[in-house]
Amino acid sequence: MSEGKHGEILSGVHFWQGDVACAEGAIAAGCRFFAGYPITPASEIAEHMAKRLPKVGGVCIQMEDEIASISAVIGASWGGLKAMTATSGPGFSLMQENIGYACMTETPCVIVDVQRVGPSTGQATKAAQGDVMQARWGTHGDHEVIVLSPNSPQEMFDLTIKAFNLSEIYRVPVIVLADEIVGHMWEKVYVPPPEEIVIQNRRKPSHFSEPVFGGISDVEVPPMPQIGNGFNLLITGSTHNEYGYRKTVDPEVHRKLVIRIVNKIRKNANKIIDVEVQNMEDADIGVISYGCTSRSVYDAVILAEEKGIKVGHIRLRTIWPFPEKIVRELAKRVDFILVPEMNLGQLVYEVERVVGCEAHVKAISKIGGGEMITPEEILSEIRKLLER
Question: Residue 218: what pLDDT?
Fold first, then answer.
C-alpha cells in the first residue's frame, strides 16, 4: 500500500468497509467538498471524509440537516469544486427539492444513498432497497438523473469515481444507490495508481459571452463557469433562458430548457448504461438484479447450473437510465424473468413495462430485518416457474 501524490490516492490493496471505499473513491475522483448530516448506515462516509479531506486540501462540513447539506454541495459545485453528500432514506427524502434544483440549474454533484428499511424511521440499522423509485422520481417535474448501484466495496470505490465523471460530463446530479449490506461490508478493494484512474472534469466556457444554460442542439451539455471568475452568473430554479434570465411565462423557453436537460441523458443513455451479463445466449430463465441481492443471484446461478438449468442474469450497475434494450433482449430468449428485491416490488414494474408480453415477470420480495433474499429462495422460484 502506498500513497499517491500528496497522499490524495491510497494506491494498493486494502481491506475496506464499503462506506470507506466510497469516501476514498470520491477523493480519488477529485472531490474536495463534503457536506452531510450523520445518519445510519451512511455515517461512516462522513466520518472518513472528515478525517481525509483536510489532508488533501478539501473541506468537510457537518450541516444542521440534510436540506442544508445538499444546499451546501450545490453552492460548492458552483464555486468550482467537485462536491458530494451521503445519507440514507429519511435524509434522501429531505434532499429531494434541492435535487430538483440541481437538475434545473444543471449542477454536477454526487449524492450517496445507503438505503435502509423504511418508510419513516423504519429499521435504521437494517438493509433494504426501497429507494429505487424515489431516486428516479423523488423530485417533482420532468427531469432525468443518473443512478448507479454498487454490489461490493470495490464497486463503492469504482462507481463513486464513475458517478463524479458522469456528473461532470452531463452537468447532472448522480446518485450512488447503495444499501446497508454493501455499505457495511468489508472486502478487498484495489486502488489503481493515480495515472490509471480516468478523471473527467466539467467543460468550461471559452469566453464570457458563451451561454451556460443552453446550446445549439437539444442534447448539448453547456459549459459551466465558476462563481468568482468574472462571469455574470444568474442561477435560478425558475424557468430561464440560455443566459439564466428568468422567463416564467414563456412556454417555449420552458419547453426548450426542460427537453434539453431530459434529452442530454435520454439520448446518451447507451453511453451511460452499464450492466453485467451472464448466460444470455442459452438461458432457460432470466433474472434481473441490482445491489446486494445480485450477490445471492451469483450463487443461485451456480446452484441452478448444477441441476442443469441455465439462468440468464442481468445485473444493473446503472438503474437509471433503465437499460431497456438489454432487458428486451433477455425477454425474447426466455419465458420467465425473476426480479429479486428487498422491497415489495419497485424495479419489477419497470421490467414489466419494458418487457410487455414478451415474457412473464415475477417479483421475489423480502422486507424487514435486513434479511437477504437467499440463493436457495431464488433457486426455488426458478424451479417453480420452470415446472409450470
Answer: 75
Q: Are 285 and 338 in contact (CB under 8 A)?
A: yes
Non-local CB neighbours of 331 within 8 Å, separated by 6+ positions: 286, 337, 354, 355, 356, 358, 359
Give the C-alpha separation, 220 to 113, whole Å: 28
Residue at 150 is within a domain: yes
Q: What is the largest CA-CA distance in the chain?
A: 69
Q: Is pLDDT at 2 greater than 50 in this prediction?
A: no
Asked whether the beta carbons of 359 and 388 are under 8 A apart, the reply is no
- Residues 6 or more apart whose CB falls under 8 angstroms from that of 207 comprise none
Integer Cα distance of 129 and 150 in angstroms: 12
pLDDT (tens digit, 9 = 90+) per residue, 266-313?
999 999 999 999 998 899 999 999 999 999 999 999 999 999 999 999
Close Cβ partners of 21 (under 8 Å, ≥ 6 residues apart): 14, 153, 154, 156, 157, 160, 189
CA 190 to chain centre: 21
Cα 309 versus chain centre, distance:
32
Cβ atoms 285, 386 nearer than 8 A = yes
Q: How confident is the model at residue 208 (pLDDT cuts 50, 70, 90)?
A: confident
Cell numbers found for residue 356: 410487455
Considering the domain architecture, whether residues 192 and 279 belong to the same structural domain is answered as no
Angle between helices 153-170 and 18-29 (to 10 degrees): 30
- Tell me the pLDDT band of 7, cut-offs 50, 70 and 90: low
Structural domain that includes position 150: 2-196
d(CA 378, CA 304): 9
Task: Take residue 3 and report the three cell numbers written for it.
Answer: 500513497
Q: Are 105 and 158 in contact (CB under 8 A)?
A: no
Give the distance, in angstroms, between the CA of residue 80 and the centroid of all CA atoms in the same chain. Answer: 22
The residue count for the chain: 388
DSSP characters for 77-91? HHTT-EEEEEE-HHH
Task: Give the DSSP letter of residue 54.
Answer: G
Cα 149 from chain centre: 6
The residue among 147, 175, 196 that closes a domain is: 196
State the pTM of this model.
0.96
Decide if 48 is inside a domain: yes
Tell me the per-residue pLDDT of 181-205, one tens digit each, with 9 for 90 and over: 999 999 999 999 999 999 999 999 9
